[in-house]
Specification:
Elements lengths: L1 H24 L4 H36 L1 H13 L9 H7 L3 H15 L4 H12 L3 H11 L8 H23 L1
Helix pairs in contact: 2-7, 3-4, 4-5, 5-6, 6-8
Length: 175
């Protein structure tokens, strides 16, 4: 186990060293290439900033208005029948929009139910098994100028529900 701890400490520096070494061997001006990439990344951040702000404001409005609680009460009544705790519906809904806001809700779940409780386990696993669907779609599709998303939303929702089912099953096995 100690060997894994040492290896994990050196993975990132070794990867960076390997990339720089490869660039030098291929006679690439590594520093200029890095600066061009950083500049391009900065412009990408500026382009997606309005989308990020809009999503964060929308999640804040949903939480502050009480609509999220209203929605979770309605969905929670039905989700209890299939084994998914209604208390985790707000976390699941918010996770589809914002991972950082969902992390705040996750901490609330931990404070109320505990990290090792059945609900805490489902919440932890579901945070790992699901994606920020609407955030990812809006940012990546806007950046890549994709106008027809085709089956992306349906596939992402299907994958999210599969992750939620897996989280209930795995938490049930652990409890």
């Amino acid at each position: 186990m100690k060997i894994l701890m040492y290896v994990t400490d050196f993975i990132v520096p070794l990867v960076i060293f390997g990339i720089v070494s490869y660039g030098v061997l291929m006679k690439v001006d590594v520093y200029d290439t890095f600066i061009k990439g950083a500049k391009s990344g900065f412009y990408t951040v500026i382009k997606i900033l309005p989308t990020l702000v809009g999503l964060m404001v929308a999640v804040g409005v949903l939480r502050a208005s009480g609509f999220l609680d209203f929605l979770s009460d309605i969905i929670g009544r039905f989700s209890e029948y299939i084994g998914f705790p209604g208390e985790l519906v707000p976390l699941t809904v918010v996770k589809m929009f914002s991972s950082s806001a969902a992390t705040g809700l996750l901490l609330d779940v931990y404070k109320e139910y505990g990290t090792d409780s059945y609900i805490g386990l489902i919440a932890s696993i579901s945070m790992s098994c699901t994606e920020t669907i609407f955030y990812t779609m809006s940012v990546y599709f806007m950046t890549a100028k994709v106008t027809k998303t085709r089956y992306t939303l349906g596939g992402a929702m299907f994958a999210t529900f599969a992750g939620l089912i897996a989280s209930v099953i795995l938490a049930g096995m652990m409890a």
